[in-house]
């Protein structure tokens, strides 16, 4: 299965912010949307950064609560690891493991096309195992 298939199944909506949004505003979006990362984009939907829950906590630990009033551009990851829609799930897992990334934005033609989390990958594997189990049961009963 490809990243594109997972996106088609789970949806392509991504919570995004601009670089000028404060860390507090981004943290509120993380909380309100029950997500672990927001993607920072420019006006043309090009990915310029990513901010995760861990980044917020690390910023508070390092700089104190005052960092919440700073723009996300001051604490976001600028060198964002991205994947493409045609990437296989196996390659995606290898990439997530290699870079210790729990969220990878998906790019298509240079623009943001979705986001894949480690939870999405786990759900994919659970569904694949369930399908395989049903096929084996049907074969045995068959």
UniProtKB/TrEMBL annotation:
Keyword Oxidoreductase: no
Signal peptide limits: none
Protein name: Inosine-5-monophosphate dehydrogenase
Keyword field: CBS domain
Organism: Sinorhizobium americanum
Domain called CBS: residue spans: 7-70, 76-131
Keyword flag Ribosomal protein: no
Pfam families documented for this protein: CBS
Classification via InterPro entries: CBS_dom (IPR000644), CBS_dom_sf (IPR046342), CBSX3_CBS_dom (IPR044725), Diverse_CBS-Domain (IPR051257)
Cited CDD domains: CBS_pair_bac_euk
